[in-house]
Amino acid sequence: MALLQIRHLPGGYAVHLANIAIHVMAGAAALAAGFLILFKEKGTATHKRLGMTFVWLSLVVCATAIIGTIFFRFIPVFAVLSLLVPYQLLGGWRVARTQGAGPAMIDGVALVVAMAIALPLSMEILAGPGRLATVDYAAVVTLWMVLAYDAIKWTFPRRWHASLWRYEHIYKMIASVFAMLSALTGNVVRVGQPWSQMLPSAMGVVVIAYFCQRLARERRTPGVNLRSVDASPRDAE
Description:
The chain has 237 residues and is mainly α. Helices cover 75% and strands 0% of the residues. It contains 7 helices and no strands. It starts with 11 loop residues before the first helix and ends in a 17-residue tail after the last helix.
Protein backbone atom coordinates (compact mmCIF):
# COMPACT_ATOMS: atom_id res chain seq x y z
CA MET A 1 0.00 0.00 0.00
CA ALA A 2 1.86 3.06 -1.22
CA LEU A 3 0.58 6.39 -0.03
CA LEU A 4 0.66 7.89 -3.50
CA GLN A 5 1.14 5.84 -6.64
CA ILE A 6 3.12 8.43 -8.58
CA ARG A 7 4.31 5.83 -11.08
CA HIS A 8 0.82 6.11 -12.62
CA LEU A 9 1.25 9.86 -13.11
CA PRO A 10 2.85 11.31 -16.28
CA GLY A 11 6.56 10.59 -16.09
CA GLY A 12 6.05 8.62 -12.90
CA TYR A 13 7.41 5.38 -14.33
CA ALA A 14 10.63 7.12 -15.38
CA VAL A 15 11.00 8.50 -11.85
CA HIS A 16 10.41 5.00 -10.50
CA LEU A 17 13.17 3.54 -12.71
CA ALA A 18 15.58 6.35 -11.80
CA ASN A 19 14.92 5.77 -8.10
CA ILE A 20 15.58 2.05 -8.51
CA ALA A 21 18.80 2.71 -10.45
CA ILE A 22 20.14 5.04 -7.76
CA HIS A 23 19.08 2.58 -5.07
CA VAL A 24 20.87 -0.34 -6.73
CA MET A 25 24.07 1.53 -7.52
CA ALA A 26 24.33 3.08 -4.05
CA GLY A 27 23.50 -0.27 -2.48
CA ALA A 28 26.20 -2.11 -4.40
CA ALA A 29 28.77 0.54 -3.47
CA ALA A 30 27.66 0.58 0.18
CA LEU A 31 27.92 -3.20 0.48
CA ALA A 32 31.37 -3.13 -1.12
CA ALA A 33 32.53 -0.46 1.35
CA GLY A 34 30.91 -2.28 4.28
CA PHE A 35 32.55 -5.61 3.57
CA LEU A 36 35.88 -3.94 2.84
CA ILE A 37 35.76 -2.33 6.29
CA LEU A 38 35.34 -5.75 7.89
CA PHE A 39 38.69 -6.85 6.49
CA LYS A 40 40.57 -3.63 7.18
CA GLU A 41 42.46 -2.78 10.36
CA LYS A 42 40.17 -0.93 12.72
CA GLY A 43 40.80 2.58 14.03
CA THR A 44 42.98 3.71 11.13
CA ALA A 45 42.38 6.77 8.96
CA THR A 46 41.47 4.45 6.08
CA HIS A 47 38.93 2.65 8.21
CA LYS A 48 37.32 5.93 9.24
CA ARG A 49 37.19 7.30 5.69
CA LEU A 50 35.63 4.05 4.47
CA GLY A 51 33.22 4.19 7.40
CA MET A 52 31.96 7.64 6.46
CA THR A 53 31.70 6.57 2.82
CA PHE A 54 29.62 3.59 3.93
CA VAL A 55 27.38 5.83 6.04
CA TRP A 56 26.67 8.30 3.23
CA LEU A 57 26.08 5.60 0.61
CA SER A 58 23.80 3.72 2.99
CA LEU A 59 21.78 6.87 3.65
CA VAL A 60 21.23 7.21 -0.11
CA VAL A 61 20.09 3.58 -0.17
CA CYS A 62 17.69 4.23 2.70
CA ALA A 63 16.35 7.46 1.18
CA THR A 64 15.55 5.77 -2.14
CA ALA A 65 14.02 2.81 -0.26
CA ILE A 66 11.77 5.17 1.68
CA ILE A 67 10.75 6.92 -1.55
CA GLY A 68 9.93 3.55 -3.10
CA THR A 69 7.96 2.44 -0.05
CA ILE A 70 5.88 5.63 0.17
CA PHE A 71 5.28 6.39 -3.48
CA PHE A 72 5.59 3.13 -5.41
CA ARG A 73 5.05 -0.09 -3.49
CA PHE A 74 4.57 -0.97 0.17
CA ILE A 75 6.38 -4.21 1.09
CA PRO A 76 6.18 -4.88 4.84
CA VAL A 77 9.71 -6.14 5.49
CA PHE A 78 11.29 -3.42 3.34
CA ALA A 79 9.23 -0.78 5.15
CA VAL A 80 10.67 -1.98 8.46
CA LEU A 81 14.20 -2.13 7.06
CA SER A 82 13.74 1.40 5.69
CA LEU A 83 13.36 2.53 9.30
CA LEU A 84 15.69 0.07 11.03
CA VAL A 85 18.76 0.52 8.83
CA PRO A 86 19.06 4.34 8.91
CA TYR A 87 18.17 4.42 12.60
CA GLN A 88 20.79 1.91 13.68
CA LEU A 89 23.28 3.22 11.11
CA LEU A 90 23.13 6.74 12.52
CA GLY A 91 23.05 5.31 16.04
CA GLY A 92 26.25 3.39 15.37
CA TRP A 93 27.89 6.53 14.02
CA ARG A 94 26.63 8.64 16.93
CA VAL A 95 27.86 6.26 19.64
CA ALA A 96 31.35 6.38 18.13
CA ARG A 97 31.26 10.16 18.48
CA THR A 98 29.85 10.37 22.00
CA GLN A 99 31.71 7.30 23.29
CA GLY A 100 31.85 7.34 27.10
CA ALA A 101 29.69 10.47 27.34
CA GLY A 102 26.57 8.44 26.64
CA PRO A 103 23.49 9.52 24.67
CA ALA A 104 22.62 13.18 24.16
CA MET A 105 19.38 15.04 23.52
CA ILE A 106 19.54 14.45 19.75
CA ASP A 107 19.69 10.70 20.40
CA GLY A 108 16.59 10.94 22.57
CA VAL A 109 14.71 12.85 19.87
CA ALA A 110 15.73 10.26 17.25
CA LEU A 111 14.53 7.47 19.55
CA VAL A 112 11.11 9.09 20.11
CA VAL A 113 10.63 9.77 16.38
CA ALA A 114 11.67 6.20 15.49
CA MET A 115 9.24 4.75 18.05
CA ALA A 116 6.44 6.97 16.74
CA ILE A 117 7.00 5.57 13.25
CA ALA A 118 7.69 2.00 14.37
CA LEU A 119 4.51 1.58 16.41
CA PRO A 120 1.86 2.02 13.66
CA LEU A 121 4.13 0.32 11.12
CA SER A 122 4.58 -2.72 13.37
CA MET A 123 0.86 -2.91 14.15
CA GLU A 124 0.00 -2.89 10.44
CA ILE A 125 2.55 -5.59 9.66
CA LEU A 126 1.58 -7.83 12.56
CA ALA A 127 -2.11 -7.45 11.71
CA GLY A 128 -1.57 -8.57 8.14
CA PRO A 129 1.95 -9.81 7.37
CA GLY A 130 3.04 -10.22 3.79
CA ARG A 131 3.89 -13.36 1.90
CA LEU A 132 7.14 -13.74 3.85
CA ALA A 133 5.58 -13.54 7.30
CA THR A 134 8.64 -15.05 9.03
CA VAL A 135 10.88 -12.32 7.65
CA ASP A 136 8.33 -9.63 8.55
CA TYR A 137 8.13 -10.80 12.17
CA ALA A 138 11.92 -11.09 12.48
CA ALA A 139 12.39 -7.54 11.15
CA VAL A 140 9.82 -6.13 13.60
CA VAL A 141 11.40 -7.96 16.57
CA THR A 142 14.88 -6.74 15.59
CA LEU A 143 13.66 -3.16 15.25
CA TRP A 144 12.10 -3.16 18.71
CA MET A 145 15.12 -4.82 20.29
CA VAL A 146 17.31 -1.97 19.02
CA LEU A 147 14.78 0.65 20.17
CA ALA A 148 14.43 -1.02 23.59
CA TYR A 149 18.20 -1.05 24.12
CA ASP A 150 18.49 2.60 23.14
CA ALA A 151 15.74 3.47 25.62
CA ILE A 152 17.22 1.40 28.45
CA LYS A 153 20.76 2.72 28.04
CA TRP A 154 19.60 6.14 29.26
CA THR A 155 19.47 4.53 32.72
CA PHE A 156 23.03 3.20 32.58
CA PRO A 157 25.66 4.64 34.95
CA ARG A 158 27.99 6.90 32.98
CA ARG A 159 30.95 4.57 33.49
CA TRP A 160 29.13 1.82 31.60
CA HIS A 161 29.10 3.80 28.37
CA ALA A 162 32.91 3.85 28.25
CA SER A 163 32.86 0.03 28.26
CA LEU A 164 29.84 -0.57 26.05
CA TRP A 165 30.06 1.96 23.23
CA ARG A 166 32.44 -0.12 21.09
CA TYR A 167 30.16 -3.16 21.31
CA GLU A 168 27.17 -1.04 20.32
CA HIS A 169 29.10 0.44 17.41
CA ILE A 170 30.12 -3.03 16.21
CA TYR A 171 26.57 -4.33 16.40
CA LYS A 172 24.82 -1.41 14.73
CA MET A 173 27.26 -0.92 11.86
CA ILE A 174 27.67 -4.60 10.99
CA ALA A 175 23.93 -5.21 11.40
CA SER A 176 23.32 -2.42 8.88
CA VAL A 177 25.59 -4.12 6.34
CA PHE A 178 23.83 -7.45 6.64
CA ALA A 179 20.35 -5.90 6.73
CA MET A 180 21.06 -4.39 3.32
CA LEU A 181 22.40 -7.74 2.12
CA SER A 182 19.18 -9.35 3.37
CA ALA A 183 17.14 -6.79 1.44
CA LEU A 184 19.21 -7.57 -1.66
CA THR A 185 18.58 -11.30 -1.42
CA GLY A 186 14.90 -10.63 -0.80
CA ASN A 187 14.71 -8.77 -4.10
CA VAL A 188 16.99 -10.97 -6.19
CA VAL A 189 16.85 -14.54 -4.84
CA ARG A 190 13.54 -16.23 -5.61
CA VAL A 191 14.34 -19.71 -4.32
CA GLY A 192 14.39 -20.94 -0.74
CA GLN A 193 12.37 -18.03 0.62
CA PRO A 194 12.04 -17.00 3.41
CA TRP A 195 15.19 -18.76 4.61
CA SER A 196 17.41 -17.49 1.80
CA GLN A 197 16.49 -13.96 2.85
CA MET A 198 17.14 -14.70 6.53
CA LEU A 199 20.53 -16.31 5.87
CA PRO A 200 22.37 -12.95 5.61
CA SER A 201 20.95 -11.96 9.00
CA ALA A 202 22.22 -15.21 10.51
CA MET A 203 25.62 -14.58 8.93
CA GLY A 204 25.59 -11.08 10.38
CA VAL A 205 25.00 -12.43 13.90
CA VAL A 206 28.04 -14.68 13.52
CA VAL A 207 30.22 -11.80 12.29
CA ILE A 208 29.01 -9.52 15.11
CA ALA A 209 29.74 -12.24 17.66
CA TYR A 210 33.24 -12.67 16.23
CA PHE A 211 34.15 -8.98 16.46
CA CYS A 212 32.61 -8.61 19.92
CA GLN A 213 34.53 -11.65 21.15
CA ARG A 214 37.74 -10.28 19.64
CA LEU A 215 37.15 -6.92 21.31
CA ALA A 216 36.49 -8.59 24.67
CA ARG A 217 39.69 -10.62 24.33
CA GLU A 218 41.77 -7.55 23.47
CA ARG A 219 40.29 -5.62 26.37
CA ARG A 220 41.39 -8.40 28.73
CA THR A 221 44.93 -8.40 27.33
CA PRO A 222 47.28 -6.07 29.25
CA GLY A 223 48.96 -3.43 27.10
CA VAL A 224 46.64 -3.81 24.09
CA ASN A 225 46.08 -0.55 22.22
CA LEU A 226 42.33 -0.29 21.77
CA ARG A 227 42.79 1.98 18.76
CA SER A 228 42.98 -1.30 16.84
CA VAL A 229 39.26 -1.77 17.54
CA ASP A 230 38.27 1.89 17.96
CA ALA A 231 36.05 2.85 15.04
CA SER A 232 35.44 6.44 16.10
CA PRO A 233 35.16 8.82 13.12
CA ARG A 234 36.39 11.83 15.12
CA ASP A 235 39.97 11.72 13.92
CA ALA A 236 38.82 11.67 10.33
CA GLU A 237 37.12 15.02 10.62
